[in-house]
Amino acid sequence: MKKFFLIFSVLLVVTSCSSVKTYNEQIIALHTVEDLQNDVDKLYKQLKKHHPKLYQYTSKSVLDFKFDSLKTTIKQPMTSREFYKILAPVVTNVRQGHVSVGSANKRFTRKERKLLKKKKFEFYDLDFEYLNHKLYVKNTRGKDSTLVGNEVVKIENDSASNLVDLYKTQFASDGYNTTLHNRFVGKNFKTFYYRNKGFVDSLKVTFKNEDSTFVKTFKRLKKEDKKKDAESDSNKTVKPKKLTKTEKKANRIARKKKRKFNKKHGYIASRKQYTRNFDFIGKDSTIALMKIRGFGNGPFKEFYEENFAKLDSAKTKYFILDLRDNGGGRIAEIDKLYSYLTDENYQFITESEVNSRIPFMKFVMSNTSSTGLKIVGGLLSPIIVTHNLLKTKKKDGKLYYRFNKFSKIKAPNPLHFKGTVYVLINGNSFSASSLLSTHLKANKRAVFVGEETGGAYNGTVAGIYKLYQLPTSKLKVRMGLMQIEAPQKQHPDGYGVKPDVEITPTIEDRKMNIDTELEWVLKAIEKNELH
Known about the structure:
five-stranded antiparallel sheet; six-stranded mixed sheet
């Protein structure tokens, strides 16, 4: 038996290495015009087959023309990365933010990945923001905080402005709004650079600070060996005293308490920050601020139960919900949060339009799904198919999937907040955070401050996804399978939730560490309190 497992393991490693080698050879090879045109046809066929709102913002005739025109522009062989640069801008014409094209980048063997984990690329310590038509360093997780507030002029020989203009063509917002583009391109600049340039060991970046420019080279360096550092430090210092049983128990309890706190607040280790944050502002509990960075990290029920109980007990008058740069997440979490912010019975989402009676099987059986997932999906297919068939129905010639938990009428939470609500939004408020904002805006439950959300007021195609890999180029295309929307609608269609008070931050605000939107709210509250 041991020999069998050893042989199986060796075969698995050899097959994996061979697969990585074959894939890497294919993405750098020059693909024929015919094969690339076939990839275009395959992609458009998949979109028409699975996307329930393909022509919501762009007519069929226009999309047909866009994809046909793309095929005619392919007149010579090209690599997968070159193909990505002409394909992604065409796909953005769907104007659905959850439809995206991933580039084909080099894969690494297990041995290579193990070695890479021992290194750290300094460039990835930088966070960027695009403001006033310029790219700035917003934050740094490394030791060089002096870079914060500096403008990025060039990366190698490419001007930052040209790179930003290129990357903006490679993704879409929901509908016609434009606020997502400036926010998203800054927040995800490193990802776009990697998609377009691939793996690099160093980057030469030109910065501008006031009137002077300087160049800094970022390298891929070995990570500090914490274990060796600790051993080195222990040789220099006196060994800690031996703990008593009582002290050891206290430490275990403290560690357990910390783990529970981190889990509840959605701790992000790489950034040393929390997904969910709550605190009172000022000397008393009159004003509370809740910052939610996303709705997809860890358990959430206890966090909301605990903090809205605090609000109720403290008789808090003003509640500020910060959804800026919140890209979305789970319907379950925003439904739970909304139940604490409304004082009326509500239906959170309507039935979801779909293109198939078995959408979950379409997700499981994507050509990118692992063999293990497909096997499990095959074994459970009778249950999945039966469940899907019971949940879908045809109405007015269209198919709809019913989420019973979120589409039924529900009462507000007994501890719902009764004071004044302010919501901070920007172009990176997308998907689930836009859906939550739609409810609060439609029911006039909050004052919105900031800029139009990147996600649409009237819903988005998301829910579950199909990730399809094109046969020749190996580019992966993600598409939502369900239209997720609130009962409320606005006209015209294709725009986000708009602020009651429009405020766009400036680089001067960032340099002075001023939160412009939050400051406006605090002044508005102070003025209200004085009157």
